Amino acid sequence: MTGVEIGLVSLVGILLLIWTGMHVAIALALVSFFGVWMLRDNAQIAARVLSLAAREGISSYLFGVVPLFVLMGLVVSRADIARDTFEVANRAFGKLQGGLGIATVGANAIFAAITGISIASAAVFARVAVPEMVRAGHTARFATGVVAGSSVLGMLIPPSLLMILYGILSEQSVGLLFIAGIGPGLLLALAYCLGIYAMVRLFPGFTGRATPPPVQPRSLAAAIGDTSAKLLPIVALIALVLGGIYGGVFTPTEAGAIGALGAIVIAFAKRRMNLGALWRVTLEAGHITASICFLIIAATMYSRMLSLSGLPAFLTQWIIGLDLGIYGFIAVFVLVLIVLGTILDSSSIMLITLPLVLPIAQQLGIDLIWFGVITVLAVEIGLLTPPLGISVYVIKSSLDDPRISLGDVFIGAAPFALIMLACLMLVVAFPVIAVGIL
Question: Which residue has the higher pLDDT, 8 or 81?
Fold first, then answer.
């Protein structure tokens, strides 16, 4: 077999192993080992190549950003900051038609700016927003769909764990990727708000007819004081992390450390966390980080095996020979990502596809920052699509309500997946949305 044939067989082998239930990282490492063995006809060389990839895979200082932002997101989730944000947003939008849904989107957009993890947003707002929306008169399908759709804002609005992962894999500036995610993130949030308003007006059978909850009378000073007390910690944390990065005060890794410390201080100051809870959150952050780093090490092995096989260079020349152009290539790539999103999680999709497509994107002269935003948007659509749809499963498990089926959540999330697709097309057609402020 030629190197290219071995590379193609390895790709099919990885997908087959994942479909049979093998962990993605193990499948990548296993296939990479046998692929190098076949390419060099020497098991010892294969072992040395892969051990070198494992040793160098996460040795960069930049990788310190992963556990720090994960810790910050988990602390914020445990400190009930999401509930505070939702209450403030509900005061601002609650009287509008679909106001509770719009408030959920607004709260999720703010929450995204201090967590960067879609799954955390889905779990928290499933418990915070869905009961309130159902109590007000919205259907469970619509309420869970709003939470599922708006939860993906966590991977676009900085800081974003997927943006960090893309920056590591593509060797692009994480800070620039964060900035590029602002425009598409705000566009998606606005599109969700308009979509919710339209659905409530045009499809009341799907959304249900909600009655705004009664507003407790209070003085203007009391309302301003309560709103300020709930928003000030959130605004301070956002300003500390993002302001430090964009102002050139911190690197993304240092900003992650400052943000994690700031979140811990806020949680203790609000008396919503003790030392025992902090220890449990730290352990959870460690488990998540270990899983991510294991995936990155396995992806590094896979990338080196592909380079030895010559498959990326072959695919680059083949795609260019087809004369698809930039937009034709992006269309095919997005379609592949959406299909893979029905069976794999976001990180795994990026780890498998990026080593193959980045050389093609570079050869076509595509801005890799813009390409990163497109990649994250397309991958995130998979969080809402069956049969995997991780956000949907997280919402279902967080609610633990037998009256709300998994099918209900998928149906509720479908309009928001379509809105995401429309926003993705706008970002592809108008790159200035992402890179215009760089």
Answer: 8
